[in-house]
Specification:
With 681 residues, this protein is an alpha/beta fold. It is built from 17 helices and 28 strands.
Length: 681
């Protein structure tokens, strides 16, 4: 997507399919004999499935030898699905190269940081920069497009699968050559690179491009800017591969939209999806519920961020799980109502498609214990009955299809450069987790019952009354100027420890921290104050900080101390400050408070900015609100964050999902209610 082009949504195969939410799964019929396929489509129709992703890991079956193609089985499946009114998101099947290819060309295999080859036997065993792999993969893409581009079941192209999930960082000679090319384009001259990388340190000055390598295993810490640039390059290398497949598809089938499934979840950080999103006709995402006390907040945070990547337009939830996964240390089944709550939370934040991995649970292979729409127990199971119920719910929510998310009054800024760079080695602490700090703020907003958008650092800040930019470590001059302008125009900015520290080259802004934001905040920090594991710094707000505590000197006469430390080395000194700027303000939080500790801090910030909850006070925190907006109405998604029933008084609207209407507006445990509210109500 470009900034000025709305995304193309799915090309539904028939007019009767429009104006509805998509519902389905990854479908892997090659795992089963053909007689099962008829059972599959009957069960799909029973469940309300209207789309499946097909051929994701089918390269070896489609091309069993370099000179042999075998499309007959896929022809049958495509025809069968179309006959039953089920559309196809057709993968290009390039995610896992077949054994014949890796045997003939082992030079396509990735090489890790330590110089070890990653051998076949799992998946994604290919180098993003390998010209040999690209030649064979694009030959397959072309064959797929030529054969199925006109098939009436085809709704969209699915490029590869989870690009970069296992091969984002390749340190091979192919990667080294491509890295040098990327650096030439970025810096132009070797002299500019040397300045950007500060190579006068440790005698690292380069005299020729050929001397530069990826940051492979070294005797000590590799150059930090080299590491940061390699992360940028690695994301760009995969994006370039995405473009290569897309180019073939758009050449041969220009009317069919193209997507690929992102992985906006947890600590999956190697791919700059904010940059990739513009390459797609519509954004897709895979998300799996993580364990821990913030599991549901993490899901909402990720769905919210995905909606930002989609520019507020509808997006496609390509994968999530009906119940347990197979790759966590302990894989818990979802509790009753959990699958529906997870699915509808994604819809609440803009998903117009709810799909799962996978349709039928595998009997063998690495993911045989990963849940599916049809589990090992078959259709006579609670999981499948829940799937049928979810299908009916999504059908009832058809009016939501095509609506956009409604902007909130507050936003959290999420920046990939800061994520990458703030967690590099040789820093004040190795314990810092960028995404966790952002998630903690999101949880604090949720506990307050206040809607908040998750946006990118390049997005327009002016729409928001309150802007939280946690651990905004990388701040180029242009970003610092935009933040200053936001505050000068009446916005309320909040940032935290380890923010404003370096420029785009990971060079420290000199003169004292927080560097690029020092004057805006009206404070100066001479030395960082990381905390040891187990140490705490108490604040006079009745909360305690961990991880970090800055020694703050107030430099602005108009700066107010919101909270002070009462223990530790900084006792008596400021912990949280704010500087009024006209009708705006710039605030600084110098320690990690966690979601609970942030609650009183956020309460003060909400009061200052005038941002308030749209929910009744009695349910704020128990109920999460997300809003989508259409031409004539808003759609309120009321999500019960608790395991108890919650009665919501004082919220009116037409209930689109009946089970939440018992006595008054009652949300059962883990339940989601959707209300249609005409504009102005």
């Amino acid at each position: 997507m470009t900034a000025h082009q709305a995304p193309r949504w799915l090309r539904w195969p028939s007019d009767t399919s429009r104006g509805r939410l998509a519902f389905g799964a990854d479908y892997n019929p090659e795992q089963w004999p053909p007689e099962v396929w008829q059972d599959d489509v009957r069960a799909m129709r029973r469940a309300g499935v209207n789309i499946v992703s097909l051929a994701i890991f089918s390269w070896a079956r489609l091309q069993p030898r370099a000179d042999r193609w075998a499309f007959d089985w896929l022809d049958q499946v495509m025809d069968l699905l179309h006959e039953n009114g089920i559309a196809v998101d057709l993968a290009t099947a390039t995610a896992s190269p077949p054994p014949w290819l890796t045997t003939a060309h082992p030079e396509i295999l990735p090489v890790d940081h330590d110089g070890r080859t990653l051998w076949p036997g799992a998946r994604q065993h290919w180098r993003p920069t390998s010209p040999v792999f690209r030649e064979h993969a694009l030959r397959l893409v072309r064959a797929m497009a030529e054969r199925y581009g006109g098939h009436p079941a085809l709704a969209a192209w699915h490029v590869n699968n989870e690009l970069g999930c296992h091969n984002v960082y390749d340190f091979s000679d192919d990667a080294a050559a491509a890295f040098r090319t990327w650096l030439r384009k970025r810096y132009g001259t070797i002299e500019r690179l040397n300045r950007a990388w500060a190579t006068t340190f440790w005698s690292q000055e380069y005299g020729a491009w050929e001397e530069i390598l990826p940051p492979r295993l070294a005797a000590s810490y590799p150059n930090p800017t080299q590491q940061l640039d390699f992360k940028r390059f690695s994301s760009d290398a995969l994006k370039d591969y995405l473009r290569a497949e897309r180019s073939v598809l758009t050449e041969l089938t220009p009317e069919i939209p193209v997507t690929t499934n992102f992985m906006v979840m947890g600590e999956t950080k190697g791919m700059d999806f904010a940059d990739w999103a513009r390459e797609l006709d519509f954004v897709s995402n895979d998300h799996y519920l993580l364990t821990g006390p913030q599991a549901q907040d993490e899901l909402s945070f990720s769905a919210n961020l995905t909606g930002m990547l989609a520019g507020g337009e509808p997006w496609f939830l390509m994968e999530h799980s009906t119940s347990a996964v197979n790759w966590q240390p302990v894989n818990l089944a979802k509790r009753p109502g959990g699958m529906a709550r997870d699915s509808l939370t994604h819809v609440a934040y803009g998903a117009d498609a709810v799909c799962f991995f996978q349709w039928r649970q595998s009997a063998g292979g690495a993911e045989k214990y990963h849940s599916a729409m049809i589990p090992h127990a078959g259709t006579d199971s609670e999981v499948f009955r829940s799937i049928v119920d979810l299908g009916a719910t999504l059908e009832a929510l058809a009016p939501v299809a095509g609506t956009r998310r409604r902007r909130a009054a507050a936003a959290i800024v999420f920046d990939w450069d800061s994520w990458w760079a703030s967690e590099l080695d040789s820093h004040p602490t190795s314990r810092l987790r960028y995404r966790q700090e952002a998630l903690d703020w999101f949880s604090a907003f949720a506990a307050a019952g206040v809607r908040v958008d998750v946006i990118g650092s390049a997005d327009d800040f002016s729409h928001y009354d309150l802007l939280v930019a946690p651990v905004l470590y990388v701040v180029p001059r242009a970003l610092a100027d935009r933040l200053s302008a936001y505050v000068a125009d009446g916005g309320h900015l909040v940032t935290t420890y380890f923010s404003g520290i370096v420029d785009e080259n990971d060079h420290v802004w000199l003169g004292g921290h927080p560097g690029a934001l020092r004057d805006l905040l009206g404070i100066r920090i001479e030395e960082f104050g990381p905390l040891l594991d187990g140490d705490r710094a108490d604040l006079d707000l009745g909360v305690s900080g961990t991880l970090w505590s800055d020694r703050i000197d107030v430099t602005g006469s108009d700066v107010k101390v919101v909270a002070s430390y009462t223990s530790g080395d900084q006792a008596g000194r400021p912990a949280i400050t704010t500087r009024p700027v006209g009708t705006g303000s710039a605030s600084y939080v110098s320690t990690r408070l966690g979601p609970e500790g942030l609650r009183p801090v956020l309460s003060l910030l909400l009061t200052t900015s005038g941002v308030r909850s749209e929910l009744p006070a009695a349910v704020a925190g128990a109920v999460e609100l997300a809003v989508r907006t259409g031409d004539d109405a808003d759609y309120w998604f009321l999500i019960n964050r608790t395991d108890e029933s919650v009665v919501v008084d004082g919220v009116a609207g037409e209930v689109l999902r009946g089970p939440c209407l018992a006595a008054g507006l009652t949300l059962g445990p883990r339940q989601v209610c959707v209300l249609r509210r005409p504009h102005g109500s």
